[in-house]
Amino acid sequence: MNADDLPTLREELEAHDLWANKGLGQHFLLDLNITRRIAKTAGDIAGKPVIEIGPGPGGLTRALLEAGADPLVVVEKDARFIPLLEPLIAWSGGRLRIAQGDALNVDEAALVYGQARELAGETPAIHVVSNLPYNVGTPLLVKWLKAGPWRGDMTLMFQKEVAQRIVAKPGSDAYGRLAVLAQARCACRLEFTVPPRAFTPPPKIASAIVRLTDRDDPYPHLDALERVTAAAFGQRRKMLRAALRALTPEAETLLAAADITPTARAEEIDQAGFRRLADAWRARS
Ligand code: SAM
Description:
With 285 residues, the protein is an alpha/beta fold. The protein is 38% helix and 18% strand. Residues 24-29, 53-56, 59-60, 75-78, 102-104, 131, 133, 136 line the site of S-adenosylmethionine.
């Protein structure tokens, strides 16, 4: 199957009289060369379950179906796009399923498998591939980082600045909560950037694709990590003994238990240090 045989995305948008709603972060990729590159970055998805958030007119959806995703479940908040996506169900031989709703509230495993099979652990992990809406990209990522065993690798497009924050290393300005949370669960790699002109309408800033694959030693207590990183990076220029007072009056005791110098600053603490700090916080609370 070849998506070049379909009407172009631009023709489809015109035929359905559709325009971008900026409130929903709609910036479309109408060039199949780019969406195919994103699908390729996801690796071998042929015959494997994939979920895509925010298909919009379906440029990435077409590329994922071409690459053999089975099933591909898409979740779109904007009902205007559903009639435009529906012909892809027959085109893909029934591999596509369309759900209308807010991705922040959906149960991905239930959409793809139904809850019972996922809970029984009988099902392959679901690859998440998406050109994410800017306004909900970070909360969606955090939701998936915390998700159960249904969630497999993730290939996600963010604003470039957010992508840089996800892959950032200690000591850099971009290093913060998002890097610590994402890297607690996943190996994170910035794959390539996409300039604003690639989108319709063009956003103000560039975007980038990040590939996230599960670590062999994921840190299980993400809620504790969220608490300590919120306090530590909440006042990132302060020494930790002061910044962590937002969390507890016994900040120095906590730091000692985690074997961290009280005069250190949050951006100097690596993944292992934050794990120890979250463990110490859990032990005290
Ligand atoms: N995937 C398309 C592409 O690459 O051309 C569209 C990407 S556009 C950046 C983001 C899409 O996410 C839009 O179609 C928008 O309507 C949808 N969207 C925004 N918020 C959403 C939400 N909370 N849940 C599901 N879809 C959402």
